[in-house]
Amino acid sequence: MKENLSYQEDLASVRNLMERSSKFISLSGLSGILSGVYALAGAGYAYQVIYDGEIRRTISFYFQHPQDVYQLCVIAFLVLICSLATGVFLSLRKAKRKGQSLWTISSRKLLINLLVPLVAGGLFTLILLSRGYFGIIAPSLLIFYGLALMNASANLFDEIRYLAYSEIILGLVAAFNPGYGLLFWAIGFGALHIFYGALMYRKYDR
Amino acid sequence: MRNPFDFLDKLLEHRTRLQIMGVLVANEAFEFTELRELLQTTDGNLATHLKALEREKYIAIHKTFIERKPNTRYKATEKGRNAFKKHLDAMEEVIKHQRN
Fold this sequence. Notes:
The complex is a heterodimer of chains A (206) and B (100). Chain A is mainly α and 206 residues long.
């Protein structure tokens, strides 16, 4: 039989361990902030591509100018690659600093949970794009991204679940407002990432 | 009324064994090396506690080969999960009991 204090310590230590072992704690809030910044920069550049003149372009315009669509895709793809690279780099750095390994059973599971809906959504959105459903591209990306985050949230910080809800709601609202895809894209991938990234940075990174 | 101490699990009174069970309850599976890294114990110490938990069938061992290297994974069994939960509840009871 042990001392009361010792039971309290045991309880605290095991709770802490359960949390630490199941969550991907190496995720840095800074990578959220930075990927938000990349997304806003990308959106700003895309804005110049789309609205360089007086006229607001209609869907039929894009049918006649596939090179603009192609350029927008390249911008989005670059933002994605930069965000992923930053995320991996900062997670590696954080894991190293804390002396933990990044490649665990939990993190592998997390990756699968995240990637399956994300890749399915990415492919689905490309199919939409190839068939000319331009008005639904941004909502589709936002909703699938939100669902992917939701699916992976069991192994992530709680903030990610709120980010997931926000992305899904935003995607649905965006679907009601075709023509404002870029704006919703900038909010969803830019502003929301910066907001939740900053929350996480304040709470876990310092 | 029964004494809350009666519900404590003798096997889980040891902190390392309690921690192992906690990790395996919170996760689907864990490898030996991952456990050692997380709990910061020695090979021998960890192996002894794992063996004790296995003997009571609180955990199950899955041995496989990944690229010809032996890989050992540990999972909590249903019995182990129940025992862990009961022990945690009992610990909370004891703390509450002693506070009053």
